[in-house]
Amino acid sequence: MFAIQTVQLTKIYEKRNLFRNTRTRGVENLELGIKPGEIFGLLGLNGSGKTTTIKLILGLLRPTSGEVFILGQPANSTAVLKKVGYLPEVPYFYRYLTAREILKFYANLSGLESPNERVDAILELVGLTERRNKQLKEFSKGMLQRVGLAQSLLHDPEVLIYDEPVSGLDPLAVREMRNLLLKLKSQGKTIFLSSHLISEVEKICDRAAILVKGKLVRTLEQNEWTVKEGELERIFVEDVAGSSEMGRIKI
């Protein structure tokens, strides 16, 4: 059983006006299988369909065709979505609240038992215990990402889905996020993340898929890019440069 599986997943965006109809491919016939307990990276340029894929998996977008399964169950099941944690590329929080207050708010929304204990444990996990009573307006982008990570972990999900988790972070914050993700993997979590940063995928992912203009070009095992330095970058550039597929179809 896969932790996450997509079967011929397709999303076409349609725009209609008086003169013509335009169809833009988000993703097409996407076949992914993420194994339990692994870190899987979806690698692609901006606009390649990574965020569309994540939104389809989470049910935030309705597919044109195809299916999504999480932990062997249809992804539109409320019961299975309770086992998923999500971090968007730019998490939004009420900036006048403290880190502890915002997490307590979400813990109560989730109906958690002993929310105070859970919030304190998660704050310690993500390294925010000393800043728990600081207002979020005082936080850097890296610290806000850690708050977002904490929120995604409150209900102790089995599957974590993160959209560009290190985008825009400084080198120190990137390293801290990387270490947190590896710690979560050691706890048995399945992590599916999107990124356009090849170096980060190289360092933490067990497997990776390359997405070009909404199409899956290839899936790679870690040993395929560790054979020599820069191999994943070479493969990625080759795949992107070699694609002549048009992402926009005019009717």
Please explain how this structure is put together:
The chain is of the alpha/beta class and 251 residues long. The chain has one domain (37-62, 75-233): P-loop containing nucleotide triphosphate hydrolases (Rossmann fold, 3-Layer(aba) Sandwich), CATH 3.40.50. It has nine helices and eleven strands. The protein has helices at 50-58, 78-81, 99-109, 115-125, 141-153, 171-186, 198-204, 222-225, 231-241, and strands at residues 4-16, 21-34, 39-43, 65-70, 73-74, 84-87, 159-163, 190-195, 207-212, 215-221, 248-250. Strands 6-7-8-3-9-10 form a six-stranded mixed beta sheet, sandwiched between helices. A five-stranded antiparallel beta sheet has the order 5-4-1-2-11. Strand 4 and strand 5 form a beta hairpin. Helix 4 (115-125) packs across helix 5. The chain is globular. The N and C termini lie far apart (40 Å). The relative contact order is 0.19. Mean pLDDT is 90; it is low at 245-251.
Provide a compact summary of the structure:
By secondary structure, the chain is α/β, with parallel strands linked by helices.
Task: Sum up the structure in keywords.
28% strand; 251 residues; 11 strands; 6-stranded mixed β-sheet; 5-stranded antiparallel β-sheet; Rossmann fold; 9 helices; 34% helix; alpha/beta
